[in-house]
Amino acid sequence: MTYALIVLPFVAVTAVVTLLSARRPGFARRMRASCWTALVLVALTAVFDNVMIAVGLFSYPPEHLSGLRIGLAPLEDFAYPLCAAFLVPALFTLAPARRETA
Questions:
Q1: Where are the alpha helices (DSSP H) in the chain?
Q2: 3 and which of 33, 48, 53, 76 could share a cystine (Cβ 3.0–4.6 Å)?
Q3: CA dihedral (81, 38, 68, 7) positive or negative
Q4: Reported pTM
Q5: What pLDDT does residue 102 have?
Q6: How far is CA 61 from CA 12, 15, 65, 66, 80, in A?
């Protein structure tokens, strides 16, 4: 199994949940915030994954990768921060509001 196939369900769930949250108020604002967050998370992932791979903390078997890399980090590694940047706000928006009891 390749890492791209492992990532695929996470990307699919993120896309579906984000689209489901599109009808909630503030969708455009949320998407702008998610894009900025994704940009920061991808930059941090690029830096730290490259450092960790360079010092030998872990490696990837080449036969399980797409072959596309950003520095030493495989492209597949960047799917998780992208999913987090969009999925977490969408889930928060779709979750029922908690009511405070006095």
A1: 3-20, 27-54, 79-94
A2: 76
A3: positive
A4: 0.83
A5: 62
A6: 24, 28, 7, 11, 19
Take residue 31 and report the two structure tokens written for it: 């998407």
Q: How far is CA 17 from CA 26, 54, 55, 78, 87, in A?
A: 15, 35, 37, 19, 7
In eight-state DSSP terms, residue 98 is P
Q: How far is CA 48 from CA 41, 43, 53, in A?
A: 10, 9, 8
- Mean pLDDT, range 32-59, rounded to an integer: 94
Q: What are phi and psi of 26, to 5 degrees?
A: 80, 20
Of 44, 37, 42, 48, residue with least CA distance to 75:
42
